[in-house]
Design brief:
single chain, two-stranded antiparallel ribbon, mainly alpha
Amino acid sequence: MKSFVFGQYFPTDSVVHALDPRAKIAAIVLLLVAVFATGHLAYFVLWALFTVGLARVSRVPLRTVLRSARPLIVLIALTAVLHFFWTPGDAIFSWRFITVTRQGVELGAVMALRLFFLVVIAGFLMLTTTPAKLSDGLESILSPLKRVGFPAHEMAMMTTLALRFIPTLMEETDRVLKAQLARGADFESGSLFRRVRAYIPVLVPLFVLVFQRADRLAVAMEARGYHGGEGRTRLNPLTWRPRDTCAIAVAILWA
């Protein structure tokens, strides 16, 4: 739980941290599209080099960047294994009804690497952008949709709060788990059904804590005069600079 970094901000002084959040959002979207379009294993070597270079420029430890993909390791491995066994082609291993094909191994590796780099590169956005700036950037990008009645401010606020409270939710889960273990709970022995049932005493207080935090957050926002985005001003307005244009250009060229 403590190693869960998705949604956390890593404070440091770097060029990437100083970029306009709108530039970072646009650049990350371009890079994610390029990652999803990558279809050959050799190109993922370039994505690995890009990840290392971006970590150096942003001054975020590479270990912290890679830990952002840890929660999805099981999903990534499952995706690869499913492609190993269910993709038709030239068999390289066969035992009874199990057949592994060369095309399946290649496709499984490509899909697993796609998911891995999607999560890692997307993690840079939250590691280098504060929740407040991320909310301002999302609202600015979505603001043209206000003309058709789209609640841009509310959507940006909800998205930012959801991302902001992911680490908090992990901390609450860890605290409840330790409390239940101290009371003699057993989450590792027995059948799968029994282990799933053992987590019920964790889920119930966790949901109560989540709703209590949401209620306190709502009261705090109302006490500070928050009534939506109409007429709101910002202490630090977003300003587009030449370095932001350069960041977009670099993302386009790399993609």
